[in-house]
Amino acid sequence: MTSTPTIGVLALQGDVREHLAALAAADAAAVPVRRPEELTGLAGLVIPGGESTTISKLAALFGLTEPLRAAIRAGLPVYGTCAGLIMLADKILDPRSGQETFGGIDMIVRRNAFGRQNESFEAQVEVRGVPGGPVEGVFIRAPWVESVGADVEVLAEYGGHIVAVRQGAVLATSFHPELTGDHRMHELFVSAVRAGS
Ligand code: GLN
């Protein structure tokens, strides 16, 4: 395996360009992924934020839901941000009808959890495993993690709520690190991909 892993960004909807740039800055070869056959050969995958109901629908439409579930089950490292975190939850507390996830993390998430008054905000978040002080968390109609299973590591909390988790090779944050120019979350993911390959 080379030291420059190829990492896909699920490009159905959301801030794909920003993730491609952040991955490149973290020394990965970043490629957009829209079709099931594009999963072949990836060392990892990022699922961007956006709208989880839309991502769920488009993934089904593009025939990606089952191949992605299978890839995650087989151990593909994945990093989901915001709506991407929702897509990686084994269970959504308040799904829209027909809304499905890929799963991968034994957790229950609450969509739009921070409420109307707090729809979008930034906060300093201390993330376990990320050196150099807190990261600037950009929260946009963000979910939080309501509860986790025994195999899930909680990496960060904000306001008493879980906002970053990891289970094996699958990482997820409620916030959007791709919007800040601070690439430490992507570096954390890329180094885990490298270590596991
Ligand atoms: N509220 C969105 C959802 O439920 C997530 C928002 C985001 O990704 N910024 O999918």
Task: Provide tags for this entry.
single chain; 197 residues; alpha/beta; Rossmann fold; three-stranded mixed beta sheet; globular
What does this structure look like?
The chain is α/β, with parallel strands linked by helices and 197 residues long. It has one domain (6-195): Class I glutamine amidotransferase (GATase) domain (Rossmann fold), CATH 3.40.50. Helix content is 24%, strand content 31%. The chain contains five helices and twelve strands. It has helices spanning 16-25, 52-61, 65-73, 83-87, 184-196; strands spanning 6-10, 29-33, 44-47, 78-81, 89-92, 105-110, 120-125, 135-140, 144-148, 153-158, 161-167, 170-173. Strands 2-1-3-4-12-11-10 form a seven-stranded mixed sheet. A three-stranded mixed sheet has the order 5-6-9. The longest helix has 13 residues, at 184-196. The chain is globular, with a radius of gyration of 15 Å. The termini are close together. The mean pLDDT is 95. Glutamine (GLN) is lined by residues 49-52, 82-83, 86, 111-112, 140-141.
What is the strand and helix layout of this fold?
Layout: E1 6-10, H1 16-25, E2 29-33, E3 44-47, H2 52-61, H3 65-73, E4 78-81, H4 83-87, E5 89-92, E6 105-110, E7 120-125, E8 135-140, E9 144-148, E10 153-158, E11 161-167, E12 170-173, H5 184-196
Parallel strand pairs: 1-2, 1-3, 3-4, 4-12, 5-6
Antiparallel strand pairs: 6-9, 7-8, 10-11, 11-12
The chain binds glutamine.
